[in-house]
Amino acid sequence: MFETLLIVWRESLEAALIVGVLLTYLGRSGQRSGVAYVWAGTLLAVVAALACGVASNDAASHLDADLQELLQAGILFLAVAVLTWMILWMHRNAGGLGGDLRRKADAALARGRLIGLATIAFVAVFREGLETVLFLWGVLVQRTDLTVLPFIGAGLAGAALAVVTAWLFFRGFQFLSLRRFFRVTGVLLLLVAAGLLMSAVNKLIGLGYLSPVAAQVWNTAWLVRDDSPVGAFLGALVGYRSRPSLAEVLAFAAYVPLMLWALHRADAAGAPVERASARTAA
Amino acid sequence: MSLRTPAAIALALFFAAGGAAASEDRAIVLAVEEAGFAPSEIEAPSGARVRLEVTNRTAAAIEFESFELNRERVIQPGQTAAVYVSGLGPGRYEFFDDFHQQRRGALLVR
Lengths: 282, 110
What we know:
The complex is a heterodimer. Chain A is mainly alpha-helical. Helices cover 77% and strands 0% of the residues of chain A. Chain A has one domain. Chain B is of the alpha+beta class. The mean pLDDT of chain B is 86. Classes of the chains: A mainly alpha, B alpha+beta.
């Protein structure tokens, strides 16, 4: 039963952290119009995961296992693309939001951005939600009497614990100054995107479409084990794995500096505009 | 300002690497039964590209997982998943069913 709780905690954590960072960012930056979209994406994903999880247990509707995995990799790449775009506009926004937050409160978000927010929430929750549903469905199938109830309870407790973990983590963020808050959430989202990219690359390697280049670059299991609470947390947040392949490390090493460069370029391009608007305001 | 071009180039490089490495695959059939993995120990030569064909013969979803192999796959009842591993050095690589952790096995690379 404790195992059930732990498994569901681990499966739900990534979703809770990603939804958590979006809600925290929107709340703090006064862009509350986006909150409903994040929740809509989340709820839709829960419903979709339940529907797919239950439907996939009907043998006739089985999609080939490897095709499902390829689909997952594709969804991950889509998530990385949307997240990349969001990180860039969030970064551009942050400059304007620093000054007078109250005046900017409830700033309207363009429709595309709202859909982007809902998409990220949907992908994060659907991916992990489906695994959780499949796992719990398995528990349900194996026990057809009332002894299943404590296990379902443990599953729900695990999901609740994941939400609490994410909430506690982001509570710490409220003590940051607004300027630092934007910087920290920006870096965090960047690492989340890099982690999802590594997961997608890992799936393609596992499917035999990509070479790992080198099977194992290093082994940090002595420091943080994959199945320790810290390893699970880092795994959910930034895709930590103790024994990554070179292809995954290369994906990370290509993505992060590229994004930092893009953000830096956005800064350089945005600076004269900010100065000009500051003069106008004065 | 677009990131798509560099990202596409990076992706193309990875796929090219995958194609170049594709040589003779060694297939190993592995079943997950209620009692555990069958067989619970499998062998492969070092450096080979191995395709593990993992079939879930139980009534519930399983998750084939290995920290040593850096792989995880959820497999539904009755389904078979291909899990590739390649370029492994000699050693013992353990795997387990993350959804039922008493089911354990290992890949011995010589």
